[in-house]
Amino acid sequence: MKNGKTRKDIQPGSLVDIVLKKDQRTNKLTRGHVKDILTNSPTHPHGIKVRIREGNQVGRVQQIIEET
Questions:
Q1: Dihedral of CA 65/1/44/37: which sign?
Q2: pLDDT tens-digit map of 22-60
Q3: Which domain holds residue 36?
Q4: How many domains does the chain have?
Q5: What are 49's strand-pairing partners?
Q6: Using CA atoms, how far apart are residues 25 and 35, in angstroms rounded to an integer?
Q7: Contact criterion met (CB below 8 Å) for 2 and 57
Q8: pTM
Q9: How many CA atoms lie within 13 A of 9 on its CB side?
Q10: In whole angstroms, how far apart are CA 42 and each of 4, 23, 39, 53?
Protein backbone atom coordinates (compact mmCIF):
# COMPACT_ATOMS: atom_id res chain seq x y z
CA MET A 1 0.00 0.00 0.00
CA LYS A 2 1.44 3.36 -1.04
CA ASN A 3 1.19 6.56 0.91
CA GLY A 4 -0.38 9.53 -0.81
CA LYS A 5 2.58 11.89 -0.92
CA THR A 6 3.54 11.39 -4.58
CA ARG A 7 1.22 12.79 -7.25
CA LYS A 8 2.15 10.25 -9.94
CA ASP A 9 0.88 7.39 -7.72
CA ILE A 10 -2.66 8.80 -7.72
CA GLN A 11 -5.06 8.65 -10.68
CA PRO A 12 -8.72 9.58 -10.99
CA GLY A 13 -10.75 6.55 -9.93
CA SER A 14 -8.18 5.29 -7.40
CA LEU A 15 -9.64 4.20 -4.04
CA VAL A 16 -7.95 6.22 -1.31
CA ASP A 17 -8.19 7.14 2.36
CA ILE A 18 -8.10 10.90 2.89
CA VAL A 19 -8.07 13.11 5.95
CA LEU A 20 -10.52 16.00 5.68
CA LYS A 21 -9.53 19.47 6.93
CA LYS A 22 -12.02 19.19 9.82
CA ASP A 23 -10.55 15.79 10.81
CA GLN A 24 -6.87 16.75 10.80
CA ARG A 25 -6.69 16.92 14.60
CA THR A 26 -8.21 13.46 15.07
CA ASN A 27 -6.71 11.86 11.91
CA LYS A 28 -10.12 10.33 11.10
CA LEU A 29 -9.94 8.88 7.59
CA THR A 30 -12.58 9.06 4.88
CA ARG A 31 -12.51 6.50 2.07
CA GLY A 32 -13.47 7.36 -1.48
CA HIS A 33 -12.61 7.32 -5.16
CA VAL A 34 -10.51 10.17 -6.57
CA LYS A 35 -12.49 12.57 -8.73
CA ASP A 36 -9.94 15.40 -9.13
CA ILE A 37 -6.30 15.86 -8.13
CA LEU A 38 -5.94 19.36 -6.66
CA THR A 39 -2.22 19.50 -5.79
CA ASN A 40 -0.06 20.58 -8.73
CA SER A 41 3.37 19.83 -7.27
CA PRO A 42 4.84 16.32 -7.77
CA THR A 43 5.00 15.62 -4.01
CA HIS A 44 3.58 17.04 -0.77
CA PRO A 45 4.74 16.18 2.77
CA HIS A 46 1.17 16.02 4.16
CA GLY A 47 -0.32 14.15 1.21
CA ILE A 48 -1.63 15.10 -2.21
CA LYS A 49 -4.90 17.06 -2.01
CA VAL A 50 -7.78 15.45 -3.91
CA ARG A 51 -11.54 15.69 -4.30
CA ILE A 52 -13.36 12.37 -3.92
CA ARG A 53 -16.57 11.43 -5.75
CA GLU A 54 -18.41 10.61 -2.54
CA GLY A 55 -19.91 13.92 -1.45
CA ASN A 56 -17.32 15.99 -3.38
CA GLN A 57 -15.22 16.08 -0.20
CA VAL A 58 -11.67 17.47 -0.31
CA GLY A 59 -8.76 16.15 1.72
CA ARG A 60 -5.18 14.93 1.66
CA VAL A 61 -4.43 11.35 0.66
CA GLN A 62 -3.03 9.29 3.54
CA GLN A 63 -2.92 5.97 1.73
CA ILE A 64 -3.81 4.47 -1.60
CA ILE A 65 -6.02 1.41 -1.17
CA GLU A 66 -6.54 0.41 -4.80
CA GLU A 67 -5.03 1.86 -7.96
CA THR A 68 -6.92 2.08 -11.23
A1: negative
A2: 999 998 999 999 999 999 999 999 999 999 999 999 999
A3: 2-66
A4: 1
A5: 60
A6: 24
A7: no
A8: 0.93
A9: 19
A10: 11, 24, 8, 22
